[in-house]
Amino acid sequence: MQHIFVLGDQLNLQVGPLSRADPAQTVVLMVESIAHGTARPYHKQKLALIYSAMRHFKLTLEAAGFTVSYQACETWEQGIAAHLKTYPAATLELMQPADFGIAGLLEEIATAHGGRLEIVENELWLSKDADWQRFAKGKKQLRMEFFYRQMRLSTGWLMEAGEPIGGQFNFDADNRQPPPKDHIFPPKLFFSPDELTRQTIDWVIECFPDHFGTLEAFNWAVTREDALTALEHFLDYRLENFGPYEDAMLSSESQLYHSLLSPAINLGLLTAREVCEAALERADRVPLSSLEGFIRQILGWREFMRHVYNAKMPALRSSNGLEHFAALPDLYWTGQTPMNCLHRAVTQLLEIGHTHHIQRLMVLGNFALLLGVEPQQLNEWFLFGYVDAYDWVVTPNVIGMSQFADLGGFTSKPYIAGGAYIDRMSDYCAGCQYDPKRSSGATACPFTTLYWDFIDRHSKRFAGHPRMGMAVNAWKKRDETDKTAILERAGEIKAQLAPRD
Ligand SMILES: Cc1cc2nc3c(=O)[nH]c(=O)nc-3n(C[C@H](O)[C@H](O)[C@H](O)COP(=O)(O)OP(=O)(O)OC[C@H]3O[C@@H](n4cnc5c(N)ncnc54)[C@H](O)[C@@H]3O)c2cc1C
Ligand code: SF4
């Protein structure tokens, strides 16, 4: 008999050992561990999603003729031990786990219980380790754009005769538009939870009552069929406008033209390759700037982040190059704040476990960075707060991209902005008691005030920085009375932000 161990984020029959196995000759081990769910106060939607997707995948495997050894227990160790008791000395094939340290941990457990773990390539990824080695070799700076270009060349996607279609690799300059006015957004897709998902939701509410978020409106794909429907729906209705409104934020519309596919891709219900290939099939129907923008998110950013994570762990996790030690404010748990942008983002997160990229980077991440929050506290919050969160994707995005805690290991500058940026890209400021243009006084936007406070705090570090130097010079030239008023207001804002009890 062949034994295949499938982790909760590898739920795919189309690739890897499962795709080549003879179901009649294969036992599949899946371990549903409660300890995993209680390790952090994970969003209830995330727990319902993962546990329901695993339970559905068990049924899919059985329908395909596999014998499934589904171990619902306290810990991974108990699950593996129970399997090896039934099948002594089995060799378990496992696709390389995405998160750091998991392969070694599982190997130890399997060996301790008389079995063996054989780690094989994780075919859910689009790129291979060799692609990264070729890219990173001898490079002082790791930049997504150049990795992405290499991947475009090697996949041949959006390429013609060795050149990028449209004459350039990246059409971001055509994107990044503010939200459209009086616009009718395409219809949303709704899944009604089946019996198994409803049972799982009830079970999560019962077992994890104090966890983050609510489970009132669960609308995530838990099977491959649902995920394929979500993919088609995105391609039919949203891909066309994905590029222009990628960075826009609106109070009345949470999805805009985003795909909401990250939970399904990260679980393995969809492969990154098939998502890109399906989008490329629409090349004659959608603008190149949107198609290229979408492909870059997956072929570029998603793959790049995963390789950066592999290359820089474990040091990346504890980086704190800007020496920020403030506590993450309580508002990240409650959404209760007069700052409308933060109120909207956290409230949406509590309700559905998801916000889009710019809310993550330029509202939630930006505010924590300006405030000087300890990056590890924010990383933890992102890890438990989002339905699509896994260490391999959260840690590089939060510690590196959003908090600049590795001092630019793979980003060229800190992603900071005052209220003017949020005002341009959203309708949040119109409904806020603060004024994005003001940096001092009681009505000053805290983002604007704290932006200058950040520049003041780090002026020495960024004085000669090619992309930050201008802001430092502008601050230096400012009137001393202005500066004092801004720094005083910054002190008041910080004092008012209560940490979590
Ligand atoms: C602070 C911070 C935290 C983040 N945490 C997560 C996380 O927990 N899980 C997660 O999957 N992504 C995370 N991202 C990346 C990105 O914000 C999400 O992938 C995206 O918002 C998911 O929504 P979507 O599927 O509608 O994406 P779309 O806008 O439709 O983009 C399409 C796909 O591109 C991929 N993608 C785009 N940007 C990135 C990126 N920077 N890193 C990895 N994949 C990317 C995702 O697979 C996404 O589904 C984070 C980004 C930041 C700045
Ligand atoms: S004014 Fe400032 S705090 Fe208020 S919504 Fe705009 S950016 Fe956010």
Please give a structural write-up.
With 501 residues, this protein is α/β, with parallel strands linked by helices. The chain folds into 3 domains: 2-120, HUPs (Rossmann fold, 3-Layer(aba) Sandwich), CATH 3.40.50; 129-307, Alpha Horseshoe (Serine Threonine Protein Phosphatase 5, Tetratricopeptide repeat); 331-496, DNA Cyclobutane Dipyrimidine Photolyase, subunit A, domain 3 (Orthogonal Bundle). It is 49% helix and 7% strand. It is built from 23 helices and 7 strands. The strands form 2 sheets. Strands 3-2-1-4-5 form a 5-stranded parallel sheet, with helices on both faces. α6 crosses α7 (144-155), α12 packs across α18 (391-402) and α15 (340-352) crosses α16. The longest helix has 25 residues, at 288-312. The protein is globular and about 75 Å long. The termini are far apart. The model has no long low-confidence stretch (mean pLDDT 97). The protein binds flavin-adenine dinucleotide and iron/sulfur cluster. Flavin-adenine dinucleotide (FAD) binds at residues 258-262, 265-266, 297-298, 301-302, 305, 356-357, 360-361, 365, 382, 386, 388-389, 393-394, 397-398, 401-402.
